[in-house]
Specification:
The chain has 2 domains: about 45 residues, Arc Repressor Mutant, subunit A; about 140 residues, Orthogonal Bundle (Tetracycline Repressor, domain 2), CATH 1.10.357.10. The protein has 9 helices and no strands. About 70% of the residues lie in helices and about 0% in strands.
Length: about 210
């Protein structure tokens, strides 16, 4: 059965090099506009900034929210790719549960630190009732990925309410590593941020003796 397209789904994937260039230009323009003035961003201003016609934009994205969804997917996939690459490099080291948790959290902190501008944009544009479904879809993706990351530690990780516990872990990591970017007192480079998130994660996921 063919997968049903939603109103937010991109219309088609950019298979050719020119099409990929167009989509990349649209996404870059959207990021630049969001950084300047969130409320004034429309498909028309995005197309103008990207240097493409509005018709070309609509070939790939039915509306502004579908562009935001693609940006969020890229941002989330960036987190996951960084985690997977780091874990893959460390496969021969036989990481402990705590080391794996730290690796995951460190990768997300580093990703938000390096992409702090984009992280701030997502907070100001996506944490709204009309766009919360985008975040919910990313939450489900993250939960499934986290299950894979912690799968080698079945003997140590609890199965009781695991999805809920992973949801809490993901929300805690997301909110703290982005909120700290706005805070005048706390810094994302403070090692205590990583240490406390590791402590929280292990406290939730580790089986009780």
């Amino acid at each position: 059965m063919a997968k049903k397209k939603t109103a937010l789904s991109a219309r088609k994937k950019p298979l050719q090099e020119r099409a990929k260039f167009t989509v990349d230009a649209i996404l870059k323009a959207t990021t630049q506009l969001l950084d300047k003035n969130v409320e004034s961003v429309t498909t028309n201003t995005i197309a103008q900034m990207a240097g493409v016609s509005i018709g070309s934009l609509y070939q790939y994205f039915p509306n502004k929210d579908s562009i935001l969804e693609r940006l969020l997917e890229q941002f989330t996939q960036g987190h996951l790719s960084m985690i997977e690459q780091t874990l893959h490099k460390a496969t021969d080291k036989k990481l402990s549960l705590e080391e794996t948790a730290r690796t995951i959290i460190h990768a997300i902190i580093e990703s938000n630190r390096k992409n702090s501008r984009l992280a701030k944009i997502f907070v100001t544009t996506l944490f709204r009732p009309e766009r919360i479904k985008l975040l919910q879809r990313m939450d489900e993706l993250m939960i499934e990925k986290f299950k894979q990351f912690f799968d080698p530690y079945k003997a140590e990780v609890t199965t009781e309410n695991l999805d809920m516990k992973l949801f809490i872990v993901i929300q805690s990591i997301r909110s703290s590593t982005v909120s700290v970017l706005f805070h005048p007192k706390y810094q994302i480079t403070d090692p205590a941020l990583e240490d406390e998130l590791v402590r929280l994660t292990l406290g939730l996921l580790r089986k009780k003796p």
